[in-house]
């Protein structure tokens, strides 16, 4: 009768435990209640539930019976070595009188409490092992019994059902948040869109909904690199605005093949500008109209367990599609605005050419006609000066027309002007600049960095050696040639300097392009560097 009564009590305790572990749908709370219930049913002093990851190691470890101080002193929790790994390799119950005497005993870390008696049971969700339930040190110094093992078998079945329900609820909630985030992005797309605001919203919502530590939006510049345009979450300094190669590795494959990829370590998936202390990451291409515009990367902390199944990945892909649409709309909006600006600039350039220049040219012709009618020498000299000023004004207006008909960004003329302004510091004054001809349209893209390098070297030489008070820079483009000339009023040509260093580099660049580079004395003093290449 005593045994029957004890059995009934244990059965009632098991039913209470089954009911108790299913009262909440939060996954972590469910795991904690399972471990606590197992310890109560078997009179175990210590208990733990280890979650088995895809790589057959323990990705999470929920304990019972250890204080926070014990956790802090022990440090890193187990990953599935030794006796704990037996259940991972062969998911069947195991009962030991002394865990330290087993051949696979891995040993305990410092500050770990002593443990001897041991009972381990796998926890299954259908045919898949979710994790293992570990119990140690039965109260009173006894051993775990057959009844304890049977109770744990029954509890593990109920635990599997409770864990599955909690996971399904968690997944449903997360999918709902993905849909809400996608709806928020759609709302942004319906109005005037700001690229930076839209991308920042994409990154922040992706990180929040995925419960990740870091989210990145990397945009393709049309070359072989991706720019880290927006970051959200635990952001390392120097990451935003940096570039990463998209030639090789998983990141490059996502861009080229437009497929989703899961990487074990985002920090090792590419050569980042700063170290990324992250673990598992999901890489999703931002593709629209068959073109990859960038990549959305959602990364978790190193060692964190990320639960992403097929439907989750599909929702992430849908969300990334919305993000790509935001990029496409932002780009289209920017292009419309640029076209409007270019239209206005073309109209202004046409009016300057057809009206203003023609009137100035006509005025100059009339003045020259007056000068031929036998006026006094002083008057003729003044007329010639005025005509020369009109010619200079016409050249300046033509230069303005060339600038107006140049794309808004990427103009060589702008780079030259910026470089001349930069030379103000080393020289102590701003060089005078004259640009003549359509240098932004006739100079090929591959020659532009060479021109900038040549002008920088010539200005640098003038700053170091000339001791000049004025410097004149001329960049002239003709249909068949490009000329860069830098003249100064300094101390003149030093033959020793002219044959070495920067001047030799100028000549080598000209020779490689089939051009010439000369270094001549100025009139009345100074130096004139003339660099010419064919177009």
From TrEMBL:
Residues 26-173, 194-337 form the GAF domain. It holds the Pfam family GAF_2. Signal peptide: none annotated. CDD domains: HATPase_UhpB-NarQ-NarX-like. GO terms for cellular component: membrane. InterPro entries: GAF, GAF-like_dom_sf, HATPase_C_sf, HATPase_dom, Sensor_HK_TwoCompSys, Sig_transdc_His_kin_sub3_dim/P. The keyword Transferase applies. GO terms for molecular function: phosphorelay sensor kinase activity; protein dimerization activity. The keyword Metal-binding does not apply. Keywords: Kinase, Transferase, Two-component regulatory system. Residues 446-535 form the Histidine kinase/HSP90-like ATPase domain. This is Putative histidine kinase response regulator.
């Amino acid at each position: 009768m005593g045994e029957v009564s004890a059995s009934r009590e244990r059965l009632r305790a098991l039913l209470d435990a089954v009911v108790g572990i299913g009262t909440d749908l939060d996954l972590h709370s469910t795991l904690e209640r399972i471990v606590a219930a197992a310890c109560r049913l078997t009179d175990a002093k210590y208990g733990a539930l280890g979650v088995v990851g895809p790589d057959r190691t323990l990705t999470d470890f929920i304990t019972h019976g250890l204080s926070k101080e014990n956790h802090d002193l022990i440090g890193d929790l187990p990953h599935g070595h030794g006796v704990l790994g037996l259940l991972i390799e062969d998911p069947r119950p195991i009962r030991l009188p002394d865990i330290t005497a087993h051949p696979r005993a891995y040993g305990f870390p410092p500050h770990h409490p002593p443990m001897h008696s041991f009972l381990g049971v796998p926890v299954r969700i259908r045919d898949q092992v979710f994790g293992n339930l570990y119990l140690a040190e039965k109260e009173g110094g006894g051993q775990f019994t057959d009844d304890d093992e049977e109770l744990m078998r029954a509890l593990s079945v109920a635990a599997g059902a409770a864990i599955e329900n909690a996971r399904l609820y968690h997944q449903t909630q997360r999918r709902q948040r993905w849909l809400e985030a996608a709806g928020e992005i759609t709302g942004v797309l319906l109005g005037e869109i700001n690229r930076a605001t839209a991308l920042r919203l994409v990154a922040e919502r992706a990180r929040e909904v995925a419960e990740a530590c870091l989210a990145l939006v990397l945009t393709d510049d049309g070359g072989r690199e991706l720019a880290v345009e927006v970051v959200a979450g635990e952001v390392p300094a120097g990451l935003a605005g940096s570039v990463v190669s998209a030639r090789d590795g998983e990141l490059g494959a996502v861009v080229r093949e437009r497929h989703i990829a899961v990487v074990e370590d985002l920090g090792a998936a590419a050569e980042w500008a700063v170290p990324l202390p992250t673990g598992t990451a999901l890489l999703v291409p931002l593709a629209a109209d068959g073109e990859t515009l960038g990549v959305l990367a959602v990364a978790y902390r190193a060692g964190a367990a990320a639960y992403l199944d097929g439907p989750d990945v599909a929702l992430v892909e849908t969300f990334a599609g919305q993000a790509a649409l935001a990029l496409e709309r932002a780009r289209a909006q920017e292009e419309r605005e640029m076209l409007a600006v270019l239209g206005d600039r073309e109209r202004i350039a046409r009016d300057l050419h057809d009206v203003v220049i023609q009137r100035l040219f006509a005025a100059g012709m009339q003045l020259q006609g007056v000068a031929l009618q036998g006026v006094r020498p002083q008057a003729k000299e003044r007329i010639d000066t005025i005509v020369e000023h009109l010619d200079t004004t016409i050249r300046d207006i033509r230069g303005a027309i060339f600038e107006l008909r140049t794309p808004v960004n990427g103009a060589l003329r702008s780079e030259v002007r910026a470089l001349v302004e930069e030379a103000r510091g080393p020289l102590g004054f701003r060089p005078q600049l004259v640009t003549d001809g359509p240098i932004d349209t006739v100079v090929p893209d591959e020659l532009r960095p060479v021109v900038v390098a040549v002008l920088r070297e010539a200005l640098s030489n003038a700053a170091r050696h000339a001791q000049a008070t004025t410097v004149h820079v001329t960049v002239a483009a003709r249909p068949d040639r490009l000329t860069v000339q830098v003249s100064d009023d300094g101390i003149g040509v030093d033959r020793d300097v002219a044959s070495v260093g920067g001047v030799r580099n100028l000549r080598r660049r000209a020779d490689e392009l089939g051009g010439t580079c000369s270094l001549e004395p100025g009139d009345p003093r100074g130096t004139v560097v003339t660099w010419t290449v064919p177009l």
